[in-house]
Amino acid sequence: MQGKGLVTLVAIVLGLICLNELLPSFYANKIEKEARAIAGDNQVKYQAELDRLSKDTLNLGFTKLNYTSAKQKEMKLGLDLKGGINVLLEINQRDLVNDLSNYSTNAILIEALNRTDQAQKSSSKQYIEDFFTQFEAVNKQKGTNLKLADPEIFGNTNLSEIKFNTPDDQVKNIIRRKIDASVGTAYEVLRTRIDKMGVTQPNVQRVPGTGRILVEMPGIKDIDRVKKMLATSAKLQFWEVQMGPEVLPYFSELNQLVKVKGDSIGVAKTTNLTNLIQLNSTPGNAVANVKLSDTAVVNKILNSAIATKARPVNLKYTQFMWGYKPETNTSNSLVLYAIRGNINQKAPVDGAVESANINYDQLGRIVVDMQMDSQGARDWKAMTEKNKGKVVAVTLDNRVYTAPMVNEVIPNGRTQISGNFSQEEAKDLVDVLGAGKLPAGAKIVQADVVGPSLGAESINDGVMSFLIAFAVIIIYIIFYYGGAGVYAVIAMVVNLFYIFGIMDSIDATLTLPGIAGIVLSMAMAVDANVIIYERTKEELFRGKGIMEAYKDGFKHAISAIIDGHLTTLITAIILYVFGTGPIKGFAVTLIIGLIMTLFTSVLLSRVMIFNRLEKGKSLSVWTAPTKNLFRNTWIDFIGKRKWSYIVSAILMVISLASIAINGFKYGIDFTGGRNYVVRFEKPVDANKIEENLAKLMKTADGKNESVEAKTFGNSSQLKITTDYLIDDESLAADQTVEKKIYDGLKQDLPANMTLADFKSADKGHAGIVSSTKVGPTVADDITTHGILAVVASLIGIFIYILVRFDKWQFSLGAVAGLFHDTVVILGVYSLFYKVMPFNMEINQDFIAAILTVIGYSINDTVIIFDRIREYLREKKALTLAGLFDDSISSTIGRTFNTSFTTILVILAIFIFGGDNLRGFMFCLLIGIGFGTYSSIFIASATAYDFLRGKKKEEKVTGKSSTDVELAK
């Protein structure tokens, strides 16, 4: 066999590389098992054992390993396998535009920014592109003909490269570069912050073409702390403070307005603002003291258009800011400060911090000492000179940390922040300030949180489903193909080793969907071997010797294998391009798996088989029970196509009717919202809990927001979904929703469970085991990308089939079959989402499943089309109908074996793979079944009808397969 030496060399080198990459994972796991065996559940003792064992070094000659270095190099486990947090941060690009315009108050600019904010709610474009569009629209509408290079827009001293006569197109390019650089700066700042937290194997990535940054931190338990560290801009600002006498008359007037116009504001007219702000208990230099439960109502009133219009001149630009945290003596309240603003709301002092450290004041309280940069020091000196004897506020991200009176001028830029800090809070603040400030505010627009216990369960479920699926494949393929099946299994094991090794070498993250991708890759590997062995069997039945039969089997199979893999690869690549998070993980493993399958199942398997045959040894390609299975099978598929058209038409009509009437259960990926998987110690009533939560999820005007509670996996676990406060992407909103859910579930939780315990459920305990948040803008993007992914897959496959088979009729047949599969799957989800005991939401996982089905279905179709193409050259005497029937009948063994093994694999994952994968696998089960059906009865039949045109053929009444002709 030619090239045997090269294939063997590549296999050995690739194996050594993979072994070197995977060794750290094996070694780190070994050390952790040893430590756990000694320490048991004692975490302190476990850490001590790890420290002791970390001193040992494994010397293998070509590499040296200790636990610390191995841990850094081990394979990355995704959020769903290890627990932790995955957030998508969006840099506030309006802030960036304001900064680049030097906080201009130009009316055209302000209106364009306001319109852009609205447009972004339903736009998938970048903020700056929508801004340019809106700026031109406002300019045209007002007839101002204002240029972007105007001094009131971007032609200011901060942007020296923009001159008064710089064309708009050139200014746009400069602004795009500046914003991209700012997002890059934000990325570096976030990486520095995460490094200071000491997180193992964090993953920080910029999302191309957006102002977003993806951060994944496996193993993290203190989720609120992480969210705060990530979203804090570290923009330290100093403002003048307005005192009570200036503000109280306005509050009194506002109280009367609420009684008259409360409905317009969105609050009840009976709301008493004076009582809410608790003037009698206001501490320090604040203007109000508000219960935590009332802050949302007060915000709604103060931010309403009516309240803004009613402001007197001295409060026209005032900003109302909350204290950083409740005071020691009022743990259930937040104080409110009146900050003296200005027309562009630029702080008098807005300097970067050069250094920060933890210290203690005279009373032993924890404080943070800071040294500002040179510009900040000059501004701070000027401000303290101006406000000597007055109160100033130190703010971070529009939260007031302290508001002291200025006793003396501070000339050197040194200052101190006090804020009732704990040691950990002070450390986090020092770390944030030390890492540098973000160029603009950041908000969490999407978040996934998985508790460590759920991560461990996911690993167990994933490994269990993987082992069962692997065992099923091994048993079946050896049973069906005998000795040749053993070589197929060896190739699969090697393939599996390569997949894990390559993933580790490219620093890819293994996720639960990724495990599903690996298992499906194994199914594709089985398919490649089935095609080869079925062709080899045909050659043996023609009377050829074993060596020649295998040679011809590989030769005839290679075209179908390549076509099938490439069409599936198209969908996998599209899935990677348009997918996010875990779906990308699925796509990556599938892509690697497909490429490695071609190497192991075609090249490496060929080397092993021919190495045996060249030694004069035989190698069976069947067993006694399977030798003649499907051998003489011949079915008049084309003659029965009209019945299949009727059946498919009925199925599609039912599906479309259900879609129109029932619709779908959309996941928060598409609608925006929050969901929480909550575990209880005993079975609970989902309907009763939903009613309780609905009463709590009310807006300030008394309207209920949607909330749904469904059993998830078992009766002692619920999935709670709500869109309450979803437009508010702040950390405070997240905490408010979690508190509401805690209050609504309290009667079903352990009596001594605190809110903190509830938010971080550990193994065997009740509470939140995972949560997901998707903001409205992200949901729009996911919807758009999902639709584009499906459409792009269909177009890509149409073009590939057209190029490979040189007939548009084949492309049309293939796309018709895929369209049929997609509609039927959608119909099944529409019909049964209300009754199935597992999740049947239309979400990102569903889109991934649809694309996987498309890839599998087209692979099945390509095998049949490849045989039709072959017979078009070899059997010109046959009628077209006979030729199609011959082609489909001769591949029926391959179709059955591949579909059967794939369905067995998916069933194993469906049953044992855990609740998170069940909906995904159900879609694949339906899709594989209908995909196999459509390849024969829709794709092939459609291609036949359009190839035949109007010409009528005689009905085929007998078998015309090769086997039958030889028998004659």
Automatic annotation (TrEMBL):
Any one biological process term the GO annotation gives: intracellular protein transmembrane transport
Keyword Transmembrane recorded: yes
Membrane topology: Multi-pass membrane protein
Domain named SecDF P1 head subdomain: residues: 352-440
GO MF term (any one): protein-transporting ATPase activity
InterPro entries, per the entry: SecD (IPR005791), SecD/SecF_arch_bac (IPR022813), SecD/SecF_bac (IPR022645), SecD/SecF_CS (IPR022646), SecD_1st (IPR048631), SecD_SecF_C (IPR048634), SecD_SecF_C_bact (IPR055344), SecDF_P1_head (IPR054384)
Subcellular location: Cell membrane
Keyword entries, A-Z: Cell membrane, Membrane, Protein transport, Translocation, Transmembrane, Transmembrane helix, Transport
Pfam families named in the record: Sec_GG, SecD_1st, SecD_SecF_C, SecDF_P1_head
Entry's transmembrane regions: 462-479, 515-533, 554-579, 585-609, 643-664, 782-803, 810-834, 846-865, 896-913, 919-947
Domain Protein translocase subunit SecDF P1: 185-242
Domain Protein export membrane protein SecD/SecF C-terminal: 442-608, 758-945
Record-level GO cellular component terms: plasma membrane
Family indicated by similarity: Belongs to the SecD/SecF family. SecD subfamily.
Record text on subunit structure and interactions: Forms a complex with SecF. Part of the essential Sec protein translocation apparatus which comprises SecA, SecYEG and auxiliary proteins SecDF. Other proteins may also be involved. Forms a complex with SecD. Part of the essential Sec protein translocation apparatus which comprises SecA, SecYEG and auxiliary proteins SecDF. Other proteins may also be involved.
Function: Part of the Sec protein translocase complex. Interacts with the SecYEG preprotein conducting channel. SecDF uses the proton motive force (PMF) to complete protein translocation after the ATP-dependent function of SecA.
NCBIfam families: 2A0604s01 (TIGR00916), secD (TIGR01129), transloc_SecF (TIGR00966)
Annotated protein name in UniProt: Multifunctional fusion protein
